[in-house]
Write a structure and sequence with these properties.
Elements lengths: L3 H17 L13 H26 L4 H28 L24 H4 L3 H12 L5 E7 L5 E7 L7 H15 L9
Antiparallel strand pairs: 1-2
Helix pairs in contact: 2-5, 2-6
Length: about 190
């Protein structure tokens, strides 16, 4: 068994090699998941930029098609709200089952109900957020639904009853953050 002085002497010799070395560079080993984390960060940054660019198309329309979509949803919303206001005025303030006559459902035919980017894509969420921020619409949310016959219609549902899927919620969170930061992408999102 070695005594303590032998152990200290051995350690001192090993330590002296480091002191004699000209360049003292300690190599930091890269974590195995660092490349994956970098890839995730880049894809998140690209996602944020893509969401911002998509929403910019509604803030500053670059095509007549988007302007027509915006006008179509605004027109439908004005008609819908006028009908709801007329219903309210006619009922004399009565609500629910106290009303002898009420609107059951108002559907709108619109070319935007036939567009894939609104049916299968997530562009309706951008149009909804545009309505909320640019036009201050907080009460009603546009929704596209498919009738049994296969026709698609635009309707407005109460905002408090709208349930967004995971992707729509993520897009809304990014848009709200962009709105709060003046359009700057916050890397902490």
């Amino acid at each position: 068994m070695k005594n303590i002085t032998d152990v200290i002497s051995s350690f001192s010799k090993k330590l002296s090699r480091f002191e004699e070395a000209e360049e003292k560079v300690f190599v930091k080993t890269e974590r195995k998941d660092a490349a994956l984390q970098k890839k995730i960060n880049l894809s998140e940054e690209e996602k944020l930029k893509r969401i911002k660019a998509q929403y910019e198309k509604y803030i500053n329309p670059v095509s007549k098609e988007i302007e027509e979509d915006e006008e179509a949803v605004l027109s439908a919303l004005r008609i819908f709200k006028a009908a709801k206001n007329a219903e309210s005025a006619e009922s004399g303030g009565k609500k629910g089952s106290d009303m002898p006559v009420s609107i059951h459902q108002i559907d709108f035919k619109s070319p935007l109900c036939q567009k894939d980017e609104y049916i299968y894509g997530k562009n309706l969420i951008y149009l909804t957020y545009w309505l909320q921020t640019v036009h201050g619409e907080k009460e009603w949310i546009p929704s596209i639904y498919k009738f049994i016959s296969g026709e698609r219609f635009l309707e407005f549902i109460p905002a408090e009853t709208k349930h967004y899927d995971y992707e729509e919620t993520a897009i809304l969170n990014v848009l709200k953050s962009l709105n709060q930061t003046g359009g700057k992408i916050d890397e902490k999102m």
